[in-house]
Amino acid sequence: MLFIVTNVVLTLMMTNKNLIYIAGATGVGKTELSIDLAKKLKTEIISCDSRQFYKELEIGTCPPTKYQLKEVKHHFIHHKSIHDRYNVGLYEKDAINKINNLFKDKEHLVLVGGSGLYADSVIFGIDEFPEIPVAIRDEITIIYNDKGINYLQKELKKLDREYYESVDIKNHSRIIRALEIIKHTGDKFSSLRKDIKKIRNFKTQVILLECPREILYNRINSRVDTMISNGLEEEAFNLKKYSKLNTLNTVGYKEFFNYFENKLSYNEAIEKIKQNTRNYAKRQITWNKKYYDAIKVSSLEDSKKIINQLNI
Prior knowledge:
Elements: H1 2-14, E1 18-23, H2 30-41, E2 45-47, H3 66-71, E3 74-75, H4 88-102, E4 108-112, H5 116-123, H6 134-159, H7 161-166, H8 172-185, H9 189-192, E5 203-210, H10 213-229, H11 232-239, H12 254-260, H13 266-288, E6 295-298, H14 303-309
Parallel strand pairs: 1-4, 1-5, 2-3, 2-4, 5-6
């Protein structure tokens, strides 16, 4: 009885806690705003950027700088290797455990990152699927590497038309994941999705950072130039022997891998990185429309001014 009462009290206490999710397209300025907000609230940051998890990707994923990481405690930055098996289901469990522990001492936490599915796993929860045998994962990955995403798109359309019609068919990770589950279970991926929102012991407030499209694209182009100056080519070159890993099928790396294999010229690779990053930003903008009750703020304003305007 004491155990039950204690948990009820803890749940009531936790519902007063506030998770603030800073959403927005890549390059819009989420990192700066999240750090300034966390400093004001004297709290810590939970990252939901699925490529900043990997310690080998230091330049191409634009993680917070070493100085920024010292300013505010971050979680889920460079805590994994590209060789580790990690997915949104594992992240959800890790992130919720970390958040619940931090809320024992904190009133607010800041969630930030451009990986919408990973953010939603924290805010809403995701469906739980069976563990996929390594042999099946490797089989699908080999097919993807040999035949490309177009072949997998056709396979998904044939095996599960319903999910094919709803998924971002350019997102290879989601297509691979669906085909793995179909192969393992023999069921359609769509039939296993319940889309039932999980109960969280905290409130969530979404702040959507927006920017005029032309300015955003200029920022993206400029940021790519900065990454090149900082040594992205060398970083990609040192990782090229692992280019078949799913974690490295990432903008900024896959284009350089094609350059190293003489499939693109150097200038073409740079332009492809910029183009693919802009296309990714478009998909993020579309995804973020689902947060209909978000507080929308302009990235053209100073982050401290934005914070002063928020009712937090």
